[in-house]
Amino acid sequence: MNCCLRCPGNLTAGLGTHERFFLSIGALRLRKPVGIKVAGVFKLGQGDYLIEDPGLFHLTSSWQPNATARYSAEDIESGAKIAERELHLWNLKCKRLTSAIVFFSQATYGLIKSFPMAYLALFCALEALFVPDSNKAKTLANRASKFLDGFKFPEPLRDWLEKEYTRRSNLAHGVQDFIPLEKAPLSEKKKLALGRLHEITRLSILGFMSLTDNQLESLSKRSGQELQKELDSIVPPSGRFLEGQEMWCA
Questions:
Q1: Secondary structure of the chain in the HEC alphabet?
Q2: Is residue 10 pLDDT above 70, yes or no?
């Protein structure tokens, strides 16, 4: 299915057409990890010059569990609401949450071209959300598994995430080859790991987006031990962005 996203000329100050375009793409991938290919953008002209200022991107989403899945009209509407929420979060200055969204977005719609960089970006997103301090692997795994307690995971989420966070040091220090994803298909083991981390990150972001403005402002204002205590006590969220959601991973 081919789709053309149209952007009106009267834009809100501060966001251009490209920013809104990628905001929409990222919101759709937060809604559901359906495969996406982004060809490019252009400005609609007049007369014999209908295509002005063309720009090619050639982006392909980094991971999708079902090659035949498609977005429904309901998904498009939900994606629009997610995008609206993102804009509101920028205005609230929820820096950690918006940073997590940026890291996730760049990894999920294919701006990041290699497995190591995509994997590290997803972990950066989780660190921005759960801010692990001492014993980062254990703290991050405990908080994420508690936060996503209502979702089914193929194995104990806490144990898996703690092991993966410990192993990520090899990626961070360049032990693995940084071969573009389109040049060398991922092994089944790496594809499985990327899919699991993608879904943990995606649902964690949706969970934080479902928190109230007061809760998010409280988290944004706290630091040090106050922040660590609040994150340790955070409970599994609920809300419209999590309704009907599931882990799309094996």
A1: CCCCCCCCCCCCCCCCHHHHHHHHHHHHHHHCCCCCEEEEEEEEEECCEEEEEEEEEEEECCCCCCCCCCCCHHHHHHHHHHHHHHHHHHHHCCHHHHHHHHHHHHHHCCCCCEHHHHHHHHHHHHHHHHCCCCCHHHHHHHHHHHHCCCCCCCCCHHHHHHHHHHHHHHHHCCCCCCCECCCCCCCHHHHHHHHHHHHHHHHHHHHHHCCCHHHHHHHHHCCHHHHHHHHHCCCCCCCCCCCCCCCCCC
A2: no
